[in-house]
């Protein structure tokens, strides 16, 4: 068990408000002790980032790329040490951690090492402009140039702490910004380890800083700090709204990846193969990180002719999953992040029962000795207006809803305040493509829950503001500057 300081200005800093315990969600034992930030810690981190900005923003793209490439190498080399740490503090199963927690962090640094070398200038054709009282006429040339925003506050979620942070930090650094990171309070330890790793990779002191805290105060101080130019946040819609309100007072740029209530629409033409694909995709809500995924298809909308068939298949799927110790390779479903999150999900399920929904399977706490577990749960016979069908639970819970025609399916799918990721399953890909255009969602998967790493990622409505991913991530962490000259 290690006790950490904040990572500020290229070195560890003792916290002003002591430490707090980071707890393993499966064993309820302490993994390590994280620093509790006070206002002075946050101020020191922002000042360090501000002091480093001029030098880093003027560093040649090729040099920035070399640092990010080296960071990717070091993450890959340190995976044997980082995987157990991330696994212990997140409660994710070992197979998920080894494949999808640590390696994507290295991949993202590698991707944005290339990104640092992408062209940042869009030349515009010269135009003849007539003389005016403002200036003489002539042939006027111009270019649109992407410039770094400045100091970026990166506030991340607890489900994929290291990978999520890398997805923000790597494009921000590639564009020449400096960063103050504030990881989620539940699992910040691997994010703190990123500080010395980036220094070893050659990143100058102050370009990347990390402060942590168990309470909202540290994040609030960071968002409100006048030295921060942009806030990049991944988390709940409720917290995102508070951040947007605070950031708006000083016109900070924001990038918000917020909640989701993904709908998987299974059309009536689905054949055996498509139904199997849909069941596997929707079943990922049960089996992949215990449903703690904002993109999860947590609602399955099924044509009435197929409804009972799909419900039966999902029931069998959920019952087949092993719930237990996430370190055991036979385990598919691990714990939720905390007792508070487990209790929250259980409260939603109790509310569903009270409102008349049927819990086909699950709904009871699994018989485990310790940890914050919720059994894979399928809710059927729910009305689209029920709370369980409208709000994000962030647990291994799927709500099944029947529909009679495409218009009804679209109304149900679009009938929440979210719009992050929806899915369409059909034997006719052209029909699914056409239906996707009617969904108020930032992302639509057709017959798959697989992601494409270069697509712009973000949401409609209350699911967020802005897009990242691929080259769009570089755009997110830059400002456009127009440069005009007389030819």
Automatic annotation (TrEMBL):
Coiled coil: none annotated. GO terms for molecular function: oxidoreductase activity, acting on the aldehyde or oxo group of donors, NAD or NADP as acceptor. Keywords: Oxidoreductase. It holds the Pfam family Aldedh. Residues 12-483 form the Aldehyde dehydrogenase domain. It comes from the Bacteria. InterPro entries: Ald_DH/histidinol_DH, Ald_DH_C, Ald_DH_N, Aldehyde_DH_dom. Belongs to the aldehyde dehydrogenase family. This is Aldehyde dehydrogenase family protein. It comes from Streptomyces botrytidirepellens.
